[in-house]
Amino acid sequence: MLRSKNTKSITLTSTAVLALALSGCTAMGGGNIPSASSPITPTEAKQGSQAHPQLLNEFGGAMGGPYANYVERVGKNISVQSGLGNAQDDFTVSLLNSSVNNAFAIPGGYVYVTRQLVGLMNNEAELAGVLGHEVGHVAARHSAKRQARSQRNSILGVLGQVASSVLLGDSGLGRIGQQLSSQVPQLATLSYSRNQELQADELGIQYLNNAGYDPRAMATLLSSLAAQNSLDAQLQGRGNATMPAWASTHPDPASRVQTALGKAQGMTGVTNRDTFLTRIDGIMYGDDPKQGIIEGRTFTHPDLRLSFSAPQGFYMVNGTRAVSINGDSGRGQLSTGRYNGNLETYVRGVFTALGGEKQKLVPQEMKRTTVNGIPATYGTARVNNGQSNVDVVVFAYEFSKTSAFHFMTISQSGRSGTFNPMFQSMRRISSSEAARIVPRKVDVVTVRRGDTVQSLANRMAYDRGKVERFRVLNGLSSSQGVTAGQKIKIVVK
What we know:
Structural class: alpha+beta
Strand content: 15-25%
Distance between the termini: 19 Å
Largest sheet: 7 strands, antiparallel
Shape: globular
């Protein structure tokens, strides 16, 4: 979601602060650990109110209007079941303009869900269930229970447990890998333990039951997430479904489905399926053109008038302030920063920021070039990360005298050429090309006599994977069909 206005350079400090705030990933407060039913404390309320504006900014901002009002009503109703507050107004529920499947809550009564995850859901009970799960993490004070571990580690160390890879090792250049991988917010948050996930599932099921919803919705939502995770891996050409996924902070949704079903056995309630589908009809699905869009291996930003393609075998994730590029042989990101008209100074500044205060990182060589008519400068550095040598490249482009964009990439030594096709693919797009980019949205339709999964899937606004996307979007297994009179979702432009 690289923004067209008020763009800022990314610093590890700002990313780390947000990582600490998300979902109570690490402690936001000290002292004794309250019980799961203890109300919000004044300290938690203060800390939550301070983190809230940052989180909204990091995740594309809060949406307004009917969709947001509906999500807020459902979210407050389920949140009050937790005992954290006695009134619905004790909670702030935000619908985020993000194309990532994500939901989280932080101490202080702040609850968040992305429009993308809402679009994946198929009934109101699922919406209540996922929000209840997140509130359950806060009610159980999972963040405070990990405070001791957080205090034993620096922010870099904590993030390193999540962001480091076999390519980066555990020291030295590891912080660069952390910065490259943690720019995308859903990859920056710390994971919960399996026991904490199961406890949050159980609390969410309890809240659903208390609110009169069908508690089995927790299992159906987890099933949809697992299916979407697997489909994303397939469409992106990855051999597994481990990245990218909200499962980085909510591990293994597939294996938790049966556990959730077992916990909900014998419980009944409403799903409000038709009401839900009516209320989300028309909601944006996928990337917001104002934040740039990904089509296959190509990223295009109509407002910034730029486009590039990731190398063969790589996939991209659209983050709030940067686009990440991920593959087996390296990783990178496209971002921007303050520009004073000197590309060489700009590139050196990026290297300095990557190295941080303790490690001085300077390019070993700098070269000027032109890419598709755009002035460019790039620098490279080879660094030993404690286990092997890795190559870091910063490739910057001058789009005007006051604006520049840059790739940061890291790869095994001698493999930086993998990214050359991407560096050379950067181009300006015309106003007419920009005008043709329009958002996708969810269209809720009623199945007519003679409609089939195939005929309905053919209406999906995608070039490939139409049937698979349709099934995942509507929570249908590979053997399930549709029936006349049934409401279903398709994605259209």
